[in-house]
Amino acid sequence: VAESPLPCIVTCRPEWEGGFYAADEDERVSMFEALGTADHPPAYIDVELKAYTASANIRQKINLAVDHPKQERHVRTRLILSTHDFNGRPADLTRKILAMQAEPACAVVKVAYRARSIRDNLELFDTLSERQKPMIALGMGEFGLMSRVLAPKFGGFLTFASLRDESATAPGQPTIDDLLGMYRFRSVGKDTKVYGVIGWPVTQSMSPLVHNAGFAEIGWDGVYLPMPVEGSYESFKATFGSLIDHGTLGFAGASVTIPHKEHLFRLGIDRKLAGTAETDAVGACNTFVRGGGVQIHNTDATAIHELLATGGSVPASVIVGAGGVAHAAAFIAGRFSDTVTIFARKSEQARALAAGLRDHANDARIVAGDWDGLSQTRATVYINCTPVGMAGGPDPDGLSIPIPDMPGLPPQTVFFDTVYNPIETPMLRAARERGYRTIDGVRMFVRQAAAQFELWTGQAA
Q: Is 193 one of the catalytic residues?
């Protein structure tokens, strides 16, 4: 501590509070006392509420080590009283917060628990807004990143980051480089607009890197975050509704990805959100915009059209998948193909998608194919709309289209993958090795992201 070039916080967390200290409690408390009364004390010591209230002797020793209203001498160390739960939100959270705020020696209240959903962050923000003393309120784990990045927006005393991934002291901590660089932590204030990518999973998404860089370039007061939401419509509806309805979050826009694109369209109907003729035809959306109204859009369709329209009309296109991006791909393919065949492992989904698009297909014939017949098709354009081959997805090494089993196709045959991480998926590698034309997901990602950026900011991407 004496050699620390910056003000520091000292803690020695016992095992029963999620730390690693397993020795004598009196020794731990005596260490805090010695640190607080040393010639070069820390700025703060962090002690668990449970330990602090365990006995009058412990409180006396800790109070000797920190600034206290009743002390005649001046001590340069202050007390952070904390509570941690690595399993979830403690049932008695409110009682613990009130107890910490009521303690005269407590300078800062700290609450940290494992967030179980995005909505836990909103409760933490409300807790910060109602604080009676300086407060740290953080969600741990994958769902809690929002609480760490947006702490300044709600008046949080500080947040935590690690020097590198492997040195994180709690699950879900970002690195200092990501916090200050990608998320522009020092520019986050109470008026900062909040954007995000909603999906499951989203850890592999490049969208935060792209959109935060764009916001920085044009000086836009916004921050873009990964927002993991589990796959059901109920989870999506509850989370999205909470984000929209929160009074001070400033939720201004979102990218919506697998598996929630159809869920956003459905929610748009439920909430009477303004769509477009294209979203109505596709039946899936990937973009939410809030500013002078609330709208939903499908920039996937825009991107696919831009990438494929230059090739002119083709006899046949094949769509693999029946999720949100497949809706957009089949709709666009219907504009320049005589026949569009949709293949999905669940054949009823392929049939439902084909039936839903027939009224919007111009003169194209849209049909569902039998999954086992995919390898026998001969089309001009193949588009993978499944997460097979995606880094961090359910089958990162899988082959979304069985190119090795397919009959020889003309070299001008196009294989298009909507997966963008990695850039070269196993399917694209197989196509390239056989001399076919390829379109990687990065090209689509960039175009759909540019369209989103312009919808949110009104400025060119």
A: no
